[in-house]
């Protein structure tokens, strides 16, 4: 609140007849020298505001800044969103998309399916072995 508004408010509250000092006791401020001296008195160098500050700057709380910049975990909302949709893509189409996205590097290729080896059976039967024994060793 400015001084002039405060003075006017006090004048309204004062009893009638006690408002101002007699005209002889009032200071003359009509001369330019008196106005300059009053300005110098009014503006003392030690009372100057710091000019280096930004006008209208508000000091922010460090805790509020931390909470504002803290990483937010969106996992639960993303899972809810993903599970909400019931549309399931065709398996052939998903395979095509995956094949297109694969590069030519070995790390991008899917692991090769190894064919299972069947246990090899013998070509000869028991009867063939007996026949061989008879012929080779001469046993009946």
From TrEMBL:
The keyword Ribosomal protein does not apply. One of its GO terms (cellular component) is nucleolus. GO terms for molecular function: enzyme binding. Residues 13-49, 99-121 are annotated as: Disordered. Its main location: nucleus. InterPro entries: AROS. It is found in: Nucleus, Nucleolus. Keywords: Nucleus. Belongs to the AROS family. This is Active regulator of SIRT1. It comes from Atlantisia rogersi (Inaccessible Island rail). The lineage of its organism: Eukaryota, Metazoa, Chordata, Craniata, Vertebrata. The gene is Rps19bp1.
